[in-house]
Amino acid sequence: MRGEPAAGGERMSAVLAERVRALPHAGACDTALVLLGTGVVGGAFLKLLDAPAATTLRLVGAANSRRQSTDPARLAERRLRERLRIEGDARDDATLLDALDASGAARRVIVDATASDEIAARHAVWLRAGYHVVTANKAAIGDGLAAWNALASARHAGGAGYGDAATVGAGLPILSSVRRLAACGDRVLAIEGVFSGSLSWLFGRYDGTQPFSRLLAEARARGYTEPDPRTDLSGADVARKLLVLARSAGFALEAHDVVVDDLVPSHLRDCPLEEFLSRAHELDAPLAARHAEAVATGSVLRHLARFSSGGLAEVGLRQVPGDHPAAHLGGTDNLFALTTTRYRERPLVIQGPGAGAEVTAQALLGDVLALASPGA
Ligand SMILES: NC(=O)c1ccc[n+]([C@@H]2O[C@H](COP(=O)([O-])OP(=O)(O)OC[C@H]3O[C@@H](n4cnc5c(N)ncnc54)[C@H](OP(=O)(O)O)[C@@H]3O)[C@@H](O)[C@H]2O)c1
After folding, report:
1. Residue to mutate (ligand 1; options 34, 38, 64, 85; most atoms within 8 A of CB)
2. Residue 140 backbone phi and psi in degrees, to 5
3. Strand partners, 62
4. pLDDT band at 78 (very low <50, low <70, confident <90, very high)
5. pLDDT tens digit sequence for 79-129
6. Is 97 within 8 Å of 127 (Cβ atoms)?
7. For residue 192, what is the DSSP state?
8. From the CA of 282, how far away is ligand 1's center (Å)?
9. Whose CA is nearest to atom 41 of ligand 1?
10. Could you give the count of Cα atoms lying within 13 Å of 80 in the half-sphere of its Cβ?
């Protein structure tokens, strides 16, 4: 049969190929985007905008903490991220929103790839005004229950979507799975596992042969940690993920309900980031002692989070035996074990890389594209 090469290298008939072309493109309607944050995740998101999957998306504004641009010529530059570091207009959210409004696009989307509390505090305002928000920043949804409820009512009032897939498990389909189970009436009884890619990498590597602070510096250089690594080490980031998961499963958990084991010594908790980084070696001795205790009992250290519908919510470093599933994680793997009324005998397990620029950016892109087909 005569045919033409298809994307996968196979051949298809000319008639079939014509029918495929005639199919309406799922994302044919147009979406305008503003990107906040051009760091590790935002930079990877910009690269994904060049991919064929993103052809229906139009970037109309981009910003870092100090500069921004709404100039189409500058936004089209491959080195936009680098250029914004040295030049651009002064930061002003109103101008970015104006660019979205002027786009005439069917959907106006703000993508939050920052770790900023200030930006997160605006999510509800933007939703209420009808802008969709897609976020890797969990500062709003992982905060108090009042902020969570405010987001829900703002979404409803503005008829806007809130894409939060990237906030837990980076690119793993964990939040969508939890929500789908809940929608089907499958009650979550427990969620446990390793929720931090950076802590998974750190404690998977830490065997006492090199100082913990050296590994921490490497994790930071690889882009695995939060901009301030104390957000990881304090357990705050994992506690926020636990809250987001439990709330998505239908439990009205408050931040103070989570018991958190903070790995940052109290005297280093509030100092400036640069000072903390220069004194990170002060973490070494206490962690070496905990490591030695674990080794003495034939265990390994893993950073675990646990929630149970019976009232348990805790986050911290634990000794686990060698046959525990968390003992065998590699790289930045996350592990989420969901015990539900229908997965009661054996949990539903989702595991895979839980940090990394590309997979996190892909989760953002997936949420943006999903806005075009909300029922899909
Ligand atoms: N890295 C990961 O693997 C991963 C995985 C899942 C989720 N996340 C989440 O993704 C978010 C970004 O993480 P990242 O690793 O990309 O951090 P990052 O490299 O430090 O980048 C943060 C970016 O946000 C910008 N920013 C800060 N305040 C801003 C503001 N008010 N307006 C506009 N931009 C602002 C920063 O600007 P400057 O460049 O001027 O400082 C920077 O470009 C965080 O919320 C993190 O929790 C990260």
Report:
1. 64
2. -80, -55
3. 35, 69
4. confident
5. 999 999 999 999 999 999 999 999 999 999 999 999 999 999 999 999 999
6. no
7. E
8. 26
9. 65
10. 30
